[in-house]
Amino acid sequence: MKLIQKTLFTLSLFILVACQTTLNRHVAADYHISNSAQQLVTWETKANAISERSNEVIRVEHYEIPLRLLEKDFDANLDSNIKNSLLFTKNGETYARWIINPEDSKWHLEVKSFLQKHKIDSEPKKFFDGYLTASRSMILVNPTNGASFSLKVSTDKTGGKWTDKKQTWADALQVRNMNRYLQETLPKMDTPTLVIMDEPLAMGIKELDHGMIMRSLNDLPEDGHYYLPAFSALHDVEGARITKLNGATDPVRFWDKHLNEPIARAMAEYFAATGSWYDSPHAQNFLVELDRDMKPTGRIVLRDLGDTYLLEDFVKNTKFGWITKNWDPNNVQQGKITTGIGLLHGNNPPSWMTSTEYKEYQWGFYRTFEQRFAEITGVPYNEMLRTESKESLWSYSRKTYQATSEAWKKFIRYANCLNGELKTLAGEKCPELYLKRQRKIDCFQGVNAIIAH
Ligand SMILES: Nc1ncnc2c1ncn2[C@@H]1O[C@H](COP(=O)(O)OP(=O)(O)OP(=O)(O)O)[C@@H](O)[C@H]1O
Ligand SMILES: [Mg+2]
Question: Rounded distance, CA 389 to CA 328, Å?
């Protein structure tokens, strides 16, 4: 009897030890998603008129791929917790975790065949906790060090109307190049309305032209504020609820003031500093920053900045002229720039908005954009106003500005100044109008920063 008991005890102990890691992960991860990030997931999945999906945690699968088989483009200052989430060492070799989108039934099979061809274990593994969003992107949490970030790979299913979307390596490189440009440029300029979600890491499988892009959630995981997707602001229930929470009664007026107009200002600041504009300026690419009490802060978050039109004449006059060479040629424009806005493009309108009110949003958008852009660059408002807009019901409104007048030529000539430099590439001193838009380094803050280090 004693022998049986002893054997049973040893056996249970053995099973317990063998299951230790699995048990740990099923019972409790050391780190969880923050409240603000969880709220973002809930808005992305539940407050989108075009689709409702699960906001529950998923044990996301990945393939383990030796880094030597991958293309990579990492930011030099990449957060080590994030880097260590995607890279690890096995048998003395560095591997990457290549994420499988949980809804994808197609693209990851190409990755599997690629691994089989290279005689590498192609069994999916589990490590991350993950959450769906409205788009291809997922929000991932490393359960062992708490790093959380957004990550995007190909999938044939997303929340909205455009479902089968391959993430190519070529596009991932374009995203990384834009990110370099933005990182170098925007911090030097005064852009009070603008927040960018950086994309500091991309990996690729060249022979499949597959890419994986990591996007930072900025300080969202620290719970200081919320990011509300623009489609949730225009959501029938949630848009009205947040309006009420802010003591207002009319969601159309509230979101005109706190969504539509701030996006117009943000795009003026963005375009003036970079010479680029989204080719698909829909609501999934904009977010409204809210404070802890869900009050709009006036700042707008831009994400997904790879697919943009470039005003080539402008970008070529900056230190980042080289990005125009590797850019999608259909999106490189000479002597003109196509702009647009379509906050309900690909979506269903809320019951509290009429089509006339939507049109008024778009007129208001261009009024605010043109005023702010004129203020920053000196291109006269009246000149921009004369450009005709093309409108589609509940969709995009577009204006293609001819950038050939004297005022536009000046904007183009001094592009480097709008990038935060003191002189043009040709060595000409920057005019005061542009210098005054540059962010001044406060001496006191500068000295403090040095002492702090
Ligand atoms: N309300 C919405 N408006 C626009 N797109 C939506 C909406 N809801 C879901 N989507 C989905 O989001 C995606 C938008 O495409 P886009 O190329 O901007 O994003 P992405 O590159 O897939 O992801 P991300 O913006 O997260 O980087 C599409 O797959 C579309 O179906
Ligand atoms: Mg997008």
Answer: 25
Ligand 1 atom nearest the C-alpha of 213 is 27
CB-count burial class (<10 Å; 0-12, 13-18, 19+) for 431: middle
User: Is residue 252 in some structural domain?
Assistant: yes
> Would residue 364 count as lying in a domain?
yes
* pTM recorded for the entire structure: 0.92
Beta carbon of 322 within 6 Å of any ligand 1 atom: no
pLDDT in tens, 71-102: 999 999 999 999 999 999 999 999 999 999 99
- Counting the structural domains of the chain, the total is 1
The CB of 377 under 6 Å from ligand 1? The reply is no
Domain-located, residue 196 = no
Q: Which atom of ligand 1 is nearest to the CA of 158?
A: 29
Residue 21 pLDDT grade (very low, low, confident, very high; cuts 50, 70, 90): very low
Mean pLDDT of 282-292: 98
Residues 176 and 139: their CA atoms lie apart, in Å, by 19
For 258-279, the pLDDT digits (tens) are 999 999 999 999 999 999 999 9
Task: Confirm whether 380 is domain-assigned.
Answer: yes
- Atom index in ligand 1 nearest the CA of residue 303 equals 25
- Our answer on whether the CB atom of 284 is closer than 6 Å to any ligand 1 atom is yes
- Bridge-partner residues for 401, per DSSP? 337
User: Domain span at residue 350?
Assistant: 223-445
CA 352 to chain centre: 28
Cα(260)–Cα(248) distance, integer angstroms: 16
Residues with CB under 5 A from ligand 2 (ion): 284-285, 304
